[in-house]
Amino acid sequence: MPAAAAAVCLALSGCGAGTEQNAGDRLNAIVWGAPMLLLMAAVGGCLTIRTGGIQFRRFGHIMRMTVGRLFNGTTAGSGEITPFQALSTAMAGTIGTGSIAGVVSAITMGGPGALFWLWVMAFLGMGTKYAEVVLSIRYRQRGTGGEWAGGPMYYIQNGMGRRWKWMAVLFCVFGMLASFGIGNAVQVSCIADAVAHLLRPAQTDMCRAASVSDWIVGITAAAVTGFTLIGGIKRLGSVTARLVPLMSLVYVVSCLAVILSNAAQIGPAFAAVVRSAFSPSAVIGGTAGYALKTCVTWGVRRGIFTNEAGLGSAPMAHAASSETNAVRQGFYGVFEVFADSMILCTLTGLTVLCCDLGSVGYTLNYGVQGSSADVSRAFATVLGERAAGWIIAVCIVLFALSTILGWALYGSRCCEYLFGARSVRPFQILFSGFCIVGAAARAESVWNMADACNGLMALPNLIAVLSLSGTVAEATRAYFERLDAGPRRVNGRPVCKK
Fold first, then answer.
1. Which pLDDT belongs to residue 153?
2. Cα separations (Å) of 167 from 155, 164, 179, 468?
């Protein structure tokens, strides 16, 4: 494990030499080629069909069982967290800088239509994440410390059989590597860039040398992460249950302020999204076929990066829930994707597109990978540069920090499965210290690594979810048959079903 971490450090330490970037691009082209995109869509479509389109037909019930129960004061036993804390921990890993910088980069590189394909992937991803969470509860087991442990490695081993354990090991290896990339270095790098932009707004060179502020960001992130991890799953759930609603509220209110100030452009922005989804060449250039492929690819890739449906990461957090009904916990998986992709990502997209269409002096640079600075400029058109800079910096810090904490749990679970419970503490120390490395890494090399690890991590999980889709379909059918049959009656009086 230290050798692997050292290799990752070396890969990230460069500022993006041409050879390294080309190698990263080639790896991403292989991992995120047409086969992976088709597999993601096919698995989501298959699970949607097998569950009877649960995210469409039962959406109202899902909202009542999630939003309606978020603050009902549910308690959890030893080694458990409440369903809301499990959701918050999963969303901490899901709602990250991808909801800001990732969406803007999809739009600038693939055109406004990339947002449309992000939505399509979100609706399919709701079916995938629902199935992942159901399986994580169905096949979880108690760890040596009494905590619930679950996720793809356990539903591969316990659901598909021990002869498939090699695939569970493969998932954990990729998951551990991904935790250092997508869950650590990407996030700390974005925090460092946001702070640097706030302190030195004129500096736009993404290949700048690491500054004092970068090292301070890295050390602070390492300290906060380490302190939270020492408290175990209970402290992690408690921290994320407070952090996620706060950061979401700050960001949503800021986006709405900008969008409503450009209310006349809301309709044209949606029209541009739909129109560009099928004919993006007028916006991003190139031949029609190439432009459409670019638009779809960026929309799907960034959609998966933001909501993580299909990666198998979030089920590791949901498995720690005190909820005993797998289907009911699965509803939180649907809500998770909806909140991230259909609300936060849509607000980000509308914010920059409405400003691009309506605000004087604001333009998106299509063909150049966007960043959180584009959102900051959009906020500045309404809130002023100083306020916008602070809001984006705070949002980036909260979003990224929550993602670091969520992925710290995922990496710990993968490490525990591979090397046993005694390896968890050394992993947590290494993971916390890696925040310092991430602060000095530059964005482009980090994004390339994160994208590649995402795809490699998803493969064994998608195979497992597809193989066990019958179990998910059966559990879903049984749940709704009981629900539709009405309450059970004893002596003529209704009795609530468990």
1. 95
2. 11, 6, 18, 14
